[in-house]
Structures are given as structure tokens and as C-alpha cells.
Write a structure and sequence with these properties.
about 10% strand
Length: about 625
């Protein structure tokens, strides 16, 4: 198969390979090779490789996971296969970039499946198209094409472009090149007109503009008179369309102009200096932050920049939600998994807005609020690391290894004074009065400051884990030398079970109740877990579930694990393995480390399958330890 041969070329040549290289070698068109490469780029993140493009040179293969890549190559060698559930979306994106009818044979060639398979998929393609009010038109001897209002087709293409559909992106980008000039001019116009837009809103507009150009060229649109009106948006449209005409030699119909003005109205707002309810809102925000700071010992209330940006965002958010306008947030789902404590704070914050201002925040909008809180926590993490000013390093000798460790520690703490000591220099170490000690040997005396035991030779992974350890308030000082994931101490054989169940809510209620009854979760822990579940499901990808309370405030740290004997579906999501998190409120950063690792687990089907088939707690921890060493970030 051609895809297998292309991958082998990338792997064996180990250099940039151009599209022309493949067209010459395989005797096919440039468009065919571009389609092949687009497909490979789209699936690459979950197949163990990446393709990097360099203008003028071509594409270069980077291996990110050798095991996954070998499995993928074996699959290609056996015969090309596209998962059934992905085909309708691929067919629709392929049809959306065609100029007119396209035959079933051509679609089958694109996906490298039989024409019969494509015919069987068309009903699902039609259902998918209907979500965008697009029809699939069939014509005997001609094939099929998409048909609908131009604004609906543009809405579909813009969504797919934003979702990084490489079929759509490649087609649009081939037409719309050097767009940076347009983007810069548009931003200058927004500033000149005193308009406000966030980054996500800016993407909504700029990616729509690319699609607008692409469709205008494809449809051979013609200008229909001068743009009327002299309000803000008409002035912007006049400037931008004139620029586009000069760069791309393209014209726009009146309908295209009107549709673009609608997009501007949805995404752009006048910059608000003084809003009527801002004083009340600021007081409500301060009251909320004060409560959160007391619960988690954080410093949200003291961060003036954070409060300023949060107030500005929420002012516009309330305004938007009252107009029933909401924006898509591509990072919301990942943030809810990898940083659940912060996301829960955002849920509670938006619940407060609902109560006081009668607005209902969507999941995506909660994600935007969570990003503000997450930004502040990153600042707190850095401040915590900067609080260590005098660091002592105890080595077996004062030789070269001590000097190397000193340099590595200084790279983590550039503003701190780092001094090395041999294991014989007890008095010198105490006289130095360190506020943090790293040691390769057990200390026979108490230094009254945090101590972390390290290996003689530290690698990059160790340095990252040191940062993770110090950003938490409770840790095992032997974590590094035992080569254990820092969260390993939160698992226990007493809270590992292989169970039969077919009701997710009943399962997590039982797990939460056990943690509460055994004095890990505080009183009301079970209710808080069920309350969190009522907001957004904690069933995520590949059968992994991470239920947790809406407010993190356990009596003792514990991760309860249930592996299902027989997976089941709950609200159309598969349940295979449940990790229930019960952590104390001072474990914000360890919480994030753990859930980030579980997020990686969801994307490593090999590890999911291994955990699903474990028969003992020891097997579970062996897999978790191996997973913890895969790729610490």
C-alpha cells in the first residue's frame, strides 16, 4: 500500500522529503500525495509520530512513541484501515472542498476503501451534514456534492478549520497564503475603533475570513456595488475587503459581506471602561475569592492583575450570556481533566454568577474562567519555588559529581544561593542555615527544613519531578531515589477493587461512601462527589473515569480505584476504570500532576488495556509506575 511505502520512506530517509519526491516515485498527482500526507498528519498524534513541514524542503518524520509507530506500520502493511466511526466525517470534509459533483470512486480512492463501503456510509454523512443545515445532493452518473446556503457551508468549514481538520486546512491554506498581513491589519483596525476581542474570538473571525476568501474564489463571486453604511463594522469591512482584493484578487458578494458583519457582531464588543454593575460585580468577585483563599490557602484576592483581568472577562461574559452568545473553548475539556480543582473553582464561580446575575455559563465558558484561575496558580507555583533562597546539597564527596548537581540545582533556582557539602560537613551545613536541602545520603541529624533525597546523577526527568515535588505541601522525600511517581503514595491496596456494576452513579456513590466512612473524605464527601457529577460528567476517554468532589478538602489523601469486570456504557460513554480522587486541600499541585498523568493514560490505549486486565493492586501500581516514567512534563 502507498501509505505504508510513504511512511517507510520517511523512516528510512530520515530527512525532509518533498511532495515532488513522492509524486515522482509513485507516479501519482501532487494532490494525491497531499491528501496522503494530510491524513498522516491528522492521525499522527495517536500513532507515535509527528510530521514537521518546512517551506521549500518538505516534511520530516519525528518518532514520538516507537511502539505505537511500529504497530501502525504493521497495520498499514496488512492493509489500510480507517475506523468506521471516522469515515463519515472524513467524507464530509472531503466533499466540502470539492468544486461540484464528485464520484463515489473518487471518494473511495481518497479513503482507500471500496465504493460499497462509501455507499453504506452516506446515510451517516447526510446526518452529519444536517447538523449544519447542509444537504447531500446525489445525481446519477455525476456523483454527490454538498448543497446548502453559503453561510451554513462557511460555518461548517470554519468549525472544521478551527478543529484542525487537515483536509479542510490544507485546501484553504493552499488558497489563502501569507495571511499574517491581513491579521495584523485587522487587529490594528480593532484597536483604532476601540473594540475588544479575546484570542478565541479573534480566531473565530480570522479563520472565518480565510474560509470566506476560499469560498469566494471557488464560487467566482463578484462585487455587487459599494458597501453602504458608516458605522464601526461597515468601516472595518470596507478596509478589510479592499485589502483582501489587493492581496488575493478576490471580490465578495453582498451576501458574503452581510454574513461577515454578522460574524463581527457575534465576536467583537466595544471596549467597556465603566460598566454599571462593575462595582457590585467587583465586590461579589472579592467575596468569592476571599472564601476560596480561606478554603485552599491561596492568594487569589491579593493578585491585583488576576482580579483586573477576571473582572474585565466576567463583565463581558455576563453581557454575552444575557444576549445568549457563547464561544467554543477547545481547551475546556482538557483543562477539566488535567486541572480539576481549578475547574471546580470555576464551576463554583459561575454558579455564583448564575445566582446573582441570572446568567447560565456553558461548559466552554466555565473553561475560559478556569484559565484565569489557572494562570494565577502558575504564578503562585513560581513564587513558591522562588521562596527557597539558600539551598544546601549534601554529596558523598566534594568532587565533580557535586559540582554537576550544584549546576543542575542552580538551573531550577536561578535566584538562590546553592552550596555543596560533603557528608562529613554537618556543622558547616547547619551554620549555612539552608531553607532547603538535597542529599544523596541519609542524614543522621535534623536540619529543620525540607529535605529531598536525590541520586548522584540527575537527569532531565528528575529535575522536572523536583519542581513537581516542591510545589506540593505533602510529599515523600524518598520519591526520587525510589523512582516512584510522586503520587504513588496516594494509592492503597485497601482501596483497589475489581467489581461488577452497570450503573455509574451507584458505583461512584458507593466508592465515595467508603472513603467517607473510613475517614478519608470528610463528612459530606459523598454529597460533594455527586454534586460535582451533576455539573459535568467525569467519564472521559477510553473508559477512564475520574470522579471527585466539587470542593477538595479531604481528611486524608487517597485514590480509590475500581476496575470493571465488564465495561458498560453510561450516557453513551464507556466505563472501564474508575479513579476516585480524595485529596487534602493543600494538594493542589499534586492533584494536577496526578490528573495530567491520568489524561496521558486515556490517550495510551496500551496502558488502559493493561490496567483493565490487572488482577492485583501490585499489577496496577507496576503499570502506573511505568506510565509515570513515560513522559513527565
Amino acid at each position: 500500500m502507498r501509505l505504508y511505502s510513504i511512511m517507510k520512506d520517511f523512516f528510512e530517509q530520515a530527512t525532509y522529503l518533498s511532495v515532488e519526491y513522492f509524486t515522482t516515485k509513485y507516479g501519482v498527482s501532487k494532490r494525491t500525495i497531499q491528501k496522503d500526507i494530510s491524513y498522516l498528519m491528522r492521525i499522527s498524534p495517536r500513532k507515535g509520530f509527528r510530521l514537521h513541514m518546512k517551506r521549500g524542503e518538505g516534511y520530516l518524520l519525528e518518532v514520538t512513541n516507537k511502539v505505537l509507530l511500529d504497530d501502525f506500520l504493521d497495520t498499514l502493511n496488512e492493509g489500510f484501515f480507517v475506523p468506521t466511526k471516522e469515515r463519515p466525517a472524513q467524507i464530509l470534509s472531503f466533499l466540502s472542498i470539492q468544486d461540484g459533483f464528485v464520484s463515489m470512486d473518487k471518494i473511495a480512492e481518497f479513503l482507500q476503501v471500496s465504493k460499497t463501503v462509501i455507499k453504506n456510509d452516506m446515510e451517516d454523512v447526510e446526518k452529519l451534514a444536517q447538523r449544519y443545515h447542509i444537504l447531500i445532493e446525489r445525481k446519477h452518473h455525476y456523483g454527490v456534492r454538498i448543497h446548502g446556503l453559503e453561510k451554513d457551508i462557511k460555518a461548517y468549514l470554519t468549525d472544521e478549520y478551527l478543529n484542525q481538520d487537515l483536509v479542510v486546512q490544507t485546501a484553504v491554506n493552499d488558497v489563502v497564503k501569507d495571511f499574517k498581513l491581513v491579521e495584523d491589519a485587522f487587529i490594528d483596525l480593532l484597536i483604532h475603533e476601540n473594540l475588544n476581542v479575546n484570542y478565541n474570538e479573534l480566531l473565530n473571525i480570522t479563520e472565518y475570513l480565510k474560509v470566506m476568501i476560499y469560498r469566494a474564489i471557488l464560487n467566482h463571486e463578484r462585487k455587487e456595488g459599494e458597501i453602504q453604511g458608516n458605522d464601526t463594522f461597515h468601516r472595518i469591512v470596507k478596509e478589510i475587503t479592499q485589502l483582501l482584493q489587493n492581496i488575493y484578487q478576490v471580490e465578495f458578494s453582498r451576501a458574503s459581506i452581510d454574513d461577515f458583519i454578522v460574524i463581527l457582531n457575534k465576536n467583537v464588543r466595544k471596549r467597556i471602561e465603566n460598566v454599571g454593575f462593575s462595582d457590585t460585580l467587583e465586590n461579589d468577585i472579592n467575596e468569592f475569592l476571599s472564601k476560596i483563599d480561606k478554603i485552599y490557602q491561596t492568594n487569589f484576592l491579593q493578585d491585583a492583575d488576576f482580579k483586573k483581568f477576571l473582572l474585565s472577562h466576567v463583565t463581558l461574559l455576563i453581557d454575552r450570556l444575557r444576549d445568549k452568545i457563547s464561544y467554543k473553548n477547545e481547551l475546556a475539556n482538557k483543562l477539566s481533566i488535567t486541572n480539576p480543582m481549578i475547574f471546580n473553582i470555576a464551576i463554583q464561580f459561575c454558579d455564583m454568577l448564575s445566582e446573582k446575575y441570572n446568567v447560565q455559563s456553558t461548559f466552554d465558558e466555565i473553561g475560559f474562567v478556569a484559565m484565569h484561575f489557572a494562570g494565577h496558580m502558575e504564578k503562585e507555583k513560581q513564587l513558591k519555588l522562588q521562596s527557597y533562597n539558600r539551598i544546601g546539597v549534601v554529596c558523598s564527596s566534594g568532587g565533580g559529581s557535586a559540582y554537576m548537581i550544584k549546576l543542575q540545582i542552580e538551573s531550577l533556582f536561578p535566584n538562590a544561593t546553592v552550596q555543596t557539602f560533603s557528608f562529613l560537613q554537618k556543622n558547616d551545613l547547619l551554620a549555612y542555615k539552608p531553607d532547603l536541602v538535597f542529599t544523596v545520603l541519609p542524614l543522621s541529624f535534623d536540619v529543620q527544613v525540607p529535605v529531598i533525597y536525590i541520586k548522584e546523577l540527575l537527569d532531565d526527568k528528575d529535575l522536572i519531578r523536583i519542581k513537581q515535588i516542591l510545589q506540593t505541601d505533602e510529599y515523600d522525600p524518598y520519591t526520587l531515589i525510589h523512582d516512584e511517581p510522586p503520587y504513588a503514595v496516594f494509592f492503597s491496596k485497601d482501596f483497589f477493587k475489581i467489581v461488577k456494576e452497570d450503573n455509574y452513579e451507584r458505583l461512584i456513590y458507593t466508592m465515595a461512601q467508603e472513603l467517607e466512612e473510613k475517614k478519608y473524605g470528610k463528612e459530606g464527601f459523598t454529597d460533594m462527589v455527586m454534586q460535582r457529577e451533576s455539573f459535568v460528567s467525569t467519564i472521559y476517554f477510553n473508559g477512564i473515569c475520574i470522579p471527585h468532589p466539587i470542593e477538595t478538602d479531604a481528611l486524608k489523601n487517597m485514590i480509590s480505584v475500581c476496575v470493571l469486570e465488564n465495561p458498560f456504557f453510561w450516557n453513551e460513554k464507556e466505563v472501564k476504570i474508575v479513579f476516585m480522587i480524595c485529596l487534602k486541600k493543600d494538594q493542589i499541585e499534586m492533584y494536577k500532576v496526578l490528573t495530567t498523568q491520568l489524561y496521558k493514560l486515556m490517550q495510551e490505549k496500551k496502558y488502559v488495556d493493561r490496567i483493565f486486565h490487572v488482577k492485583s493492586f501490585e499489577e496496577l501500581m507496576a503499570v502506573m509506575k511505568e506510565l509515570g516514567g513515560v513522559n513527565h512534563e
